[in-house]
Write a structure and sequence with these properties.
This protein is an alpha+beta fold. The chain has two domains: about 260 residues, no CATH class; about 150 residues, 3-Layer(aba) Sandwich (Protein Transport Mog1p, Chain A). It contains 16 helices and 16 strands. The strands form four sheets. Strands 6, 7, 10, 11, 12, 13, 14 and 15 form an eight-stranded antiparallel β-sheet that branches. A three-stranded mixed β-sheet has the order 1-3-2, with helices on both faces. α10 packs antiparallel against α12. About 10% of the residues have low confidence. Bound molecules: zinc ion. Zinc ion binds next to α5 and α9.
Length: about 475
């Protein structure tokens, strides 16, 4: 649905991504040279492979794969050199490396091995060692199974059932089963957004893999720090997926001391220089596919809401919400949209569309009337900005919100993520006007968010 947000939402989203990338937290360091162990995991290695294959098929549909055999062979060759190292567990996983046309500096590896490299990464790397560094680091995430480890930890109770039905062909495969739990492949997917602990482990194991393949591991840390120093428009997705665990270069230097190999091949091969020239000459991706991060946008599925809450304080009320959601302020402090970053998108005219989340605001009725009357007037106004909005059920419920009487009306509209959308309107008569909150999610996913929405409603306090 389209909320009444007058400010441009796009800029706020951008600023948020940068803020995320800049954050840095002290972490508990593993002892350099000690073994890197994979964490707790409810998936089997075969399920990692299955999940990765399904997800890779989805990525291939959404990205533009570079049509240049020389470049693809080159990426595959470096990938093979690294992933055939015993530390990468090549017997268990099916590594594959694909170059996709996308100017942003990024690369990502799906569980089980399929990895995708953006042309922007090749463009930004100063030598083959840096490219190998990113690949080695991604391979380490695969080998340590960080994606499914994170999903396992976050959805401890639901995962075994989801895995069982996925294996038995319960519809949609593993990707479909995870989507039902709200775990998607979109930007900020829990599968691809790593913790700082996972990062330091991937640096350590990635360094070991690089060293074994003949690359100087320090290039990996240098490249990450270079991205951090540059910041800018093209880096943030990689940095927010792979947060700096703190002093990467020093940590990798300490790790290297434990490796048998001390001398490495020269970094700048003629082949690398030629590949960079080839990339520079590639045509741009077709616009329909170039939007956002290749393969990671528009999946229409959000990360599960966090169980820790934070509070939004407006001038006349306050509300708690999951701390991995954001509050996007409207034209006044009391007008706010709260939701997962991926749940709020811009339509063709640049207007914000809320697909997941809650819209809070005041409406000033044209005349004095009771709660039901002013609610009906508000609905007429909402329908004028959302022409496809309908009243889904004529029955309205009376509840208490923040100690006041409230009316709940079920509305429906078209979701910006496709299909039907449920919009639950909650209205409260307040001295400032008609306070309202609209809880928004695609119809098929509303039930999964009901608990969060309920907690948000119950947390409302009027001043
Ligand atoms: Zn990482």
């Amino acid at each position: 649905m389209r909320p009444w947000i007058r400010r441009r939402t796009r800029r706020r989203l951008g600023a948020f991504a940068l803020a995320l990338a800049a954050g840095s937290v002290v972490y508990a360091a593993r002892k350099p040279g000690s073994e890197v162990k994979p964490g707790f995991n409810l998936f089997s290695k075969q399920q990692d492979v299955q999940l990765g294959k399904e997800a890779a098929a989805e990525v291939r549909r959404q990205t533009h794969i570079v049509e240049n055999r020389e470049l693809q062979n080159y990426i595959a060759k470096i990938g093979r050199k690294l992933s055939s190292r015993p530390e990468a567990d090549p017997q268990s996983f099916e590594y594959a490396f694909t170059l996709v046309t996308d100017k942003s500096i990024n690369a990502f590896a799906l569980p089980g091995g399929p990895a995708f490299v953006h042309t922007g990464l090749l463009d930004a790397a100063e030598n083959e060692g840096q490219l190998a560094g990113v690949l080695g680091h991604e391979i380490a995430h695969v080998a340590m199974r960080h994606g499914t480890n994170q999903v396992s930890k976050a959805n401890l109770l639901q995962i075994p059932a989801a895995l069982a039905s996925g294996v038995l062909g319960g519809g949609g495969g593993l990707v479909g089963q995870l989507a039902k739990l709200g775990i998607g492949l979109g930007a900020n997917s829990i599968l691809l957004k790593y913790s700082r602990d996972a990062e330091s482990d991937a640096d350590a194991l990635g360094a070991r893999i690089m060293s074994g393949a003949g690359y100087n591991p320090i290039e990996m840390a240098r490249f990450f720090e270079k991205l951090e120093a540059e910041g800018g428009q093209r880096g943030p997705q990689f940095l927010s997926d792979h947060p700096n665990p703190g002093n990467r270069v020093k940590a990798v230097e300490e790790e290297i001391r434990f490796f048998p190999r001390r001398t490495y091949d020269p970094e700048n091969s003629a082949e690398f220089t030629r590949m960079k020239a080839l990339v520079a000459k590639l045509p741009a991706a077709p616009t329909s596919r170039a939007a956002g991060n290749a393969g990671r946008s528009g999946a229409g599925v959000i990360d599960p809401p966090s169980r820790t809450a934070r509070t939004y304080r407006a001038s006349t009320y306050q509300i708690a919400y999951p701390d991995n959601w954001q509050a996007f302020g409207g034209s006044a402090q009391d007008s706010v949209t709260i939701g997962p970053k991926q749940g709020i998108v811009s339509d063709q005219s640049g207007q914000a569309q809320v697909g997941y989340g809650a819209v809070l605001n005041y409406y000033t009725p044209s005349q004095r009337q009771d709660l039901a009357g002013s609610t009906n007037e508000l609905i007429r106004n909402l329908r004028s900005t959302n022409p496809n909005m309908v009243i889904a059920s004529q029955t309205q419920r009376r509840v208490r919100v923040g100690g006041s009487n409230a009316l709940v009306t079920n509305l429906a509209s078209a979701s910006p993520f496709g299909g039907k959308e449920t919009d639950v309107l909650v209205t409260v008569a307040r001295p400032e006007g008609l306070f309202y909150m609209i809880l928004v999610a695609p119809e098929r996913e509303f039930a999964a968010l009901n608990g969060v929405f309920d907690q948000m409603l119950q947390s409302i306090r009027f001043q």
